[in-house]
Amino acid sequence: MKNTILAKRYAKALFAVGKELGAFDEYTRAMGEMADLYASNPEVRDALTNPLYPVDVRGKVMEHLVQALSTSQEMGNFLNLLVQKRRADVLPDIAEVFKAMVDEDRNVCQGTVVSATELSSDLQAKVQAMLEKITSKTVELTTEVDPSIVGGIIARVGDLVLDGSIKTQLTGLKESINGSV
């Protein structure tokens, strides 16, 4: 809970600066890359958060990472601030909240479609158009393949879930048959 509140505060501050400077794309990219690096690399996570290392050493690690990202001075200052305030552990949460805020500002939402087999680009475009019509937002769609759903698709956008999978229909039929006996 505490990390969520902190993440929202930092993301809101970064959002305000990004909006003022028109740097949403750069900030989203940099925060995403940094969050991925933090989450996937235990050495980086340790170097940025371990209290056994002095804050100035952790700050130098962050400076090298910022240089490797080739990002703006403002983003570098923000990431260094996280280290100085001992909040680097909240970085993935901040990146997630920031991305959601930018998406909301741009009237974009993230969607996922799960199918039993790979969807053709034609069908994927039709599903995307249908989801955009339902949500009245631009939908950035990702696809997944899960053979266990047998057939059909499961579409998720935010809290909306449209489950047209054969597996769910068979489960419903089974419950209906068992319930009527």
Can you characterise this structure?
With 181 residues, the protein is of the alpha+beta class. It folds into two domains: 2-104, Peroxidase, domain 1; 107-180, Glutaredoxin (3-Layer(aba) Sandwich), CATH 3.40.30. It is 65% helix and 14% strand. It contains eight helices and four strands. It has helices at residues 2-21, 24-40, 42-49, 55-69, 73-84, 91-105, 121-135, 166-180, and strands at 108-115, 138-145, 153-157, 160-163. A four-stranded mixed β-sheet has the order 2-1-3-4, sandwiched between helices. Helix 3 crosses helix 4 (55-69).
Helices and strands in order:
Layout: H1 2-21, H2 24-40, H3 42-49, H4 55-69, H5 73-84, H6 91-105, E1 108-115, H7 121-135, E2 138-145, E3 153-157, E4 160-163, H8 166-180
Parallel strand pairs: 1-2
Antiparallel strand pairs: 1-3, 3-4
Helix pairs in contact: 1-6, 2-6, 3-4, 4-5
Observed structural traits:
181 residues, alpha+beta, Peroxidase, domain 1, Glutaredoxin, 2 domains, 4-stranded mixed beta sheet, 4 strands, elongated
Overall body shape: elongated
How many domains, in number, for the residues? 2
Q: Order of helices and strands, N to C?
A: HHHHHHEHEEEH
Pick out the low-confidence regions. Answer: none
Alpha carbon gyration radius: 21 Å
Strand order of the largest sheet: 2-1-3-4
According to CATH, the fold-level topology of the largest domain is Peroxidase, domain 1
What is the end-to-end distance?
A: 46 Å
Tell me the helix content: 55-70%
CATH architecture of the largest domain: Orthogonal Bundle
pLDDT averaged residue by residue = 93
CATH superfamily of the largest domain: N-terminal domain of the delta subunit of the F1F0-ATP synthase
Instruction: Provide a count of the helices.
Output: 8
Q: In CATH, what is the class of the largest domain? A: Mainly Alpha
Strand content: 5-15%
Structural class by helix and strand composition: alpha+beta
The main sheet comes to: 4 strands, mixed
